[in-house]
């Protein structure tokens, strides 16, 4: 299991690779990096995403989870940059409930690359986000993608 930590606009991130695929993305730094070509590619794609040059990740992903969670994560990966879906929409497609979708989003081991931040409540509220910074991070990612309006400028 190789891993690589690097700085990002969200703070330090650590990518984990197992058997030629990305299996996790975690907030924070982890010592003893073992860089691989795939981890360098993933770091570069994340940097391009934040620089506004990349809208779809091309990395092999193999998240560990239940069959239901993997189906949810596959659907999340299909939500285009700058667009959102509701927990209810996804639940109807999977003949499930919105809470089950939220639970799968909360257990997503590869946030950002599997864009659980693009899932909102039926009335357009943010819902939840398990990544560091919680809803503030989710809003920041959605603003970056233009999916929600920018924060109003402060007085000045």
TrEMBL record:
- Where in the numbering of this chain does the Methylguanine DNA methyltransferase ribonuclease-like domain appear? 6-62
Where in or outside the cell?
Cytoplasm
What domain of life does the native source organism fall in?
Answer: Bacteria
Q: Name one GO biological process term.
A: methylation
Residue ranges occupied by any Methylated-DNA-[protein]-cysteine S-methyltransferase DNA binding domain in the UniProt entry: 67-147
Q: Name one GO molecular function term.
A: methylated-DNA-[protein]-cysteine S-methyltransferase activity
The yes or no answer to whether the keyword Ribosomal protein is present is no
User: Where does this chain mainly localize?
Assistant: cytoplasm
Q: What is its EC number?
A: 2.1.1.63
Q: Which reaction does it catalyse?
A: a 6-O-methyl-2'-deoxyguanosine in DNA + L-cysteinyl-[protein] = S-methyl-L-cysteinyl-[protein] + a 2'-deoxyguanosine in DNA; a 4-O-methyl-thymidine in DNA + L-cysteinyl-[protein] = a thymidine in DNA + S-methyl-L-cysteinyl-[protein]
| Active site positions, chain numbering | 116 (nucleophile)
The cross-references to InterPro entries, in alphabetical order and at most eight, read: MethylDNA_cys_MeTrfase_AS, MethylDNA_cys_MeTrfase_DNA-bd, MethylDNA_cys_MeTrfase_DNAb, MethylG_MeTrfase_N, MGMT, MGMT_N_sf, WH-like_DNA-bd_sf
Parts of the chain that traverse the membrane:
none
Q: Does the keyword DNA damage apply?
A: yes
> According to its UniProt record, which protein family does this protein belong to?
Belongs to the MGMT family.
Q: Give any extra note attached to this record.
A: This enzyme catalyzes only one turnover and therefore is not strictly catalytic. According to one definition, an enzyme is a biocatalyst that acts repeatedly and over many reaction cycles.
Q: What does this protein do?
A: Involved in the cellular defense against the biological effects of O6-methylguanine (O6-MeG) and O4-methylthymine (O4-MeT) in DNA. Repairs the methylated nucleobase in DNA by stoichiometrically transferring the methyl group to a cysteine residue in the enzyme. This is a suicide reaction: the enzyme is irreversibly inactivated.
* HAMAP family recorded: OGT
State what protein this is by name: Methylated-DNA--protein-cysteine methyltransferase
Q: Which organism is it from?
A: Phaeospirillum tilakii
The organism that produces this protein has a lineage beginning with:
Bacteria, Pseudomonadati, Pseudomonadota, Alphaproteobacteria, Rhodospirillales
């Amino acid at each position: 299991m190789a891993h690589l930590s690097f700085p990002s606009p969200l703070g330090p991130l650590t990518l984990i690779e197992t058997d030629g695929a990305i299996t996790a993305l975690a907030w924070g730094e982890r010592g003893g990096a073992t860089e691989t070509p795939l981890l360098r590619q993933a770091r570069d794609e994340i940097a391009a995403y934040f620089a506004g040059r990349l809208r779809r990740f091309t990395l092999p992903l193999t998240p560990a989870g239940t069959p239901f969670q993997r189906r949810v994560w596959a659907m999340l990966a299909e939500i285009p940059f700058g667009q959102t879906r509701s927990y209810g929409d996804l639940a109807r497609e999977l003949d499930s409930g919105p809470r089950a979708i939220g639970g799968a989003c909360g257990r997503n081991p590869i946030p950002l690359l599997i864009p659980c931040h693009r899932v909102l409540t039926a009335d357009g509220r943010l819902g939840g986000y398990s990544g560091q910074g919680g809803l503030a991070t989710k809003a920041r990612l959605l603003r970056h993608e233009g999916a929600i309006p920018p924060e109003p400028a402060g007085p000045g």
